[in-house]
Specification:
The chain contains 5 helices and 15 strands. It has 230 residues and is α/β, with parallel strands linked by helices. Strands 9-3-2-1-10-13-14-15 form an 8-stranded mixed sheet.
């Protein structure tokens, strides 16, 4: 038996655009407690030993419709010697730069400076933390300053937390359409584990995929952790 041919590129592109529009409509009026959701996602990630053991992790700084992970960033630094890196858009590519551990502010500290990266700890909401060496960059997303001494090569990553607009329960992922993550993921070693992170509302029956779309190895949401490849 021969496998069914993939749909034409134009058909896949049209299906992706339709799926993106439908998901954006679904998420447009969604309201949730981002600190609680981030804590639930982190607890589910901890069920995967390759997450807890990973020494070099790529993460995203959530924006717009993306599932919140910023509130649990302080937890990622609790493993001694771990490298946590975040992306910067450079042309049509992503470069990842190492973060310093967050610094928690005193309870009476001034936190009104919109020029700083500030967030609250998912597990202790009264605590506000700051990340340094970040700026508001492409598309208004927080990104690292381009310091060559902090650049992390793709082959160094053990694990990547991957954002997306939609995911399915076979590992399929639908991005925003610019292809930044698709190009980055294609540069990683086969041993690097890819974990999609999403809200439960972002799960669909099937995402449109072409031959170049890489599946994720696992999916973490507030309600579940699903492993597709150990």
């Amino acid at each position: 038996m021969t496998s069914s041919p993939l749909p034409a590129d134009s058909e896949i592109a049209a299906a992706k655009q339709t799926a993106r529009q439908a998901m954006k409509r679904r998420l447009r009026d969604l309201r949730f407690d981002r600190l609680a959701v981030a804590a639930q996602i982190f607890r589910n990630l901890e069920r995967f030993p390759k997450f807890t053991d990973a020494q070099t992790i790529a993460v995203y700084l959530d924006f717009g419709f993306e599932a919140p992970i910023r509130p649990f960033l302080p937890r990622l630094f609790e493993r001694a010697g771990r490298v946590v890196a975040v992306p910067r858009c450079v042309g049509r590519e992503l470069e990842f730069y190492r973060l310093d551990a967050p610094r928690f502010l005193a309870a009476d500290a001034e936190i009104a400076d919109a020029g700083d990266f500030l967030d609250r700890d998912a597990f202790s909401p009264e605590r506000v933390f700051r990340l340094t060496d970040l700026t508001s960059g492409a598309f208004g997303i927080w990104e690292p300053l381009p310091n060559p001494t902090r650049l992390v090569a793709p082959e160094a990553f053990n694990l990547v937390l991957v954002p997306g607009l939609a995911f399915d329960l076979n590992g399929g992922r639908l991005g925003r359409g610019a292809g930044f993550y698709d190009r980055f993921l294609a540069t990683l070693p086969k041993t690097t584990r890819l974990i999609g992170v999403a809200l439960d509302e972002q799960i669909v029956e099937k995402t449109p995929r072409d031959a170049f779309d890489l599946p994720v190895d696992a999916l973490a949401t507030p309600s579940r952790f699903v492993l597709f490849r150990p």
